[in-house]
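Is 6-O-phosphono-beta-D-glucopyranose placement plausible here? Inputs below.
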Amino acid sequence: MWKVVWAVLLSVTVCSHRAEAEEEGGKPSLGHVSVVIVGSTGDLAKKYLWQGFFQLYMNQVSNGHSFSFYGGGLSPADKAKPILFKILKGVTCSEDVSAERCALLKEQFLRLAQYKQLNTTKHYQELNTQLRQQVTQEGLTEAGRLFYLSVPAFAYADIAKKINGSCRPATGAWLRVVLEKPFGHDFHNAQTLVTDLANSLEDKEMYRIDHYLGKQVVSGILPFRKENKRFLDPIWNKHHIERIEIVLKETLDAKGRISFYDQYGVIRDVIQNHLTEVMTLLTLSLPANMSNCDDILQNKLKLFSVLKPLDKRRAVIGQYQSYNAEVQQELNKTMDHVSLTPTFAGVMVHIDMAQYDGLPIILTSGKMLDERVGYARVLFKNEIFCVQNYKSIYCKPKQIIFYFGHGSLQYPAILVSKNLFKPQLINSEWKEVTEHKVVSVLGLPITDYYVQMPIVQKEAYAELISQVYHGRKENFISAENLLASWGFWTPLLESLHGSFPRIYPGGAENTNLLDFHLQGQELKFSSEAVVVIPQDKVGGAGSTSFQTMQGKYKGTDMVSAWPEDLVERLAADMQEAAEAAVREGGTFHLALSGGSSPIALFQRLVEHHYSFPWRDTHVWLVDERCVPLTEVDSNFFHLHDNLLQHVRIPYTNIHPMPVQLNQRLCVEEDRGAPLYEKDILHLVNTSSFHFVLLGVGFDGHTASLFPGSQVNHGDSLVVLTESPVKPHQRMSLTFNVLNRAHKVAVLVMGKSKHELVTQLSRVKDDPKKWPITGVQPNSGKLVWYIDYDALLG
Ligand code: BG6
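Reply from A.M.:
I modeled the complex. Tokens:
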């Protein structure tokens, strides 16, 4: 009997970890197994867990194990018992079990289950005594204890401590503790949780569950890739894939779980875990030996390390309209309370690997949408240009869809467009579907696909519960995997903090309000949201238009506008300067600063200024941090990432600062600064840049010229400087060369700069205290570009 069960298990998983000691040799030890669900009357337990354990009981009852089930919770027994009883009565048998047998199994299951209040250490001690007594009285041997923690993560460490201190099984029996997601709130919180739990439980005892890994289609992704390797290898790359979409749409709201949901939101609830896991399975490099889980895990971790960092420009967020009222009600908040928790998000991810370079991977999920459906879609480019017979299969979209369930199809399946290839079946547990009802899936009639589906449909929780019971960990989340995922998502969550989600009515009424599109490196909602601009914030003396106003700041020209308009104007001014310079002398010398403000400008140039004379432009840096240019801290890195790699500029026209020479960083005797100076003198006529873009730091620094440091640099054009913040060492252009420029633009953006802008407008010019005030072009022009947020606060 065991041999059979084991063989089935191995056939559905790609890889296997060494099973726990008592199961080596493929034969679980028999004896008594106690199952304890902590949080046993909660939503999840009610919907899935009890049913999953009943399934386990049904499957295993005849194999020699005996079971007892404890529903644990904080409430006293008299309150919780009737609720638990009602849930237990609701469990169901699969279709192949006769009504008679089902009634018998249910009755047995009910007899084996009981409620136990689990709040204090004493309660856990009592439970321990009870478990021991039961085993002794019935003359059984204890095989193991399985705790399922279906409670918020903040309670884990305390419960684990109590289990460890008072409720470990007898020597020789196993302990397995299942931990529900979301496992943590951000990277640091998850790290603390991992460390705290390690004080009470061994790693092999912890099963961090992500129920998506129990979905048949999700666990079929790697086997599908393996079985169809010869078809996929040539096309699984940026040259052939247009984009990958991973989507989980729901019609339900968050009512009844707001106390949890409002702290987490859609990204933490499903994107950081479920959708990210799917993304890694789709894109990790397949190891040579697919039967080794460690190799798969290592490749997964490698993938996390090459995901491009996220920030809010790569995301759109929304919130369904009635959510805020639900928060006020469930959390007892006043009517003026505003929750910014997103219930909808779309995020674009890129992988920094030659294979996937530039390929957008879009992860989307939301509550209160028009339908319930989950899928991952790999959409291929179609190079065929159909001249006439465009209804033919060859002219249609080419896609592979991993359909998790629900939606129009209603069952889990893997679909491959017939114009791609005829896929191999994953394994003997899957069948090809050839008879279909009339239905279309993501734009194509079902008959345009090769379809395969599992012969027997299994519920994800039941599947994973069975794997815990067998001590199989390959479909659970390891600590490294977890931290890598939080490490990836935390910067986005931080950058979205305080952002206003787009409000949507819910259901079909959302129409196209949540549609979004890719704009270069950014995601944008496709329809405009109405922005109301307070009248006192625009216009005034010198106003030229509603969007942009021109005025004076510190005695020189200033342009001010809302951020997008400001950037648009600056990009236009820059292109005008470039064209004029190229017309006059054949080249345009542009010196650019680092920091976050210019990024929007770079993107604007990439996306809207196709006629910019890049071929005749030389790009210089106004300053650089003394770090390798490949590091995210480096100004060049951002310049390259957001601008240079997207435009046709000759390599020889790009002039990064030589901060790394002789394999060391900014060492005076390596003479990096004089080297850069020499290049400027050699290439830039009278060392006068045509256009210099500067920013201002909170302390008034510009380029890498900081308050309190040397102002007079003799004749030097380039120097090494010290910054008060890390990385301390910098290389910078000096006032000598900055003030020789034809035009200097100082770009200041964001509310956080308002204080600075106000202060600067009042202070006297004093470059030692306020370096930016030392920028006074000798014969060129200085223009301030300040957005409304920075100007008006
Ligand atoms: C859970 C989330 O993990 O996944 C829920 O907490 C979400 O908010 C659910 O509804 C979706 O799972 P499924 O299996 O219905 O797609």
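Short version: Residues 1-12, 21-27, 529-546 have pLDDT under 50 and may be disordered.
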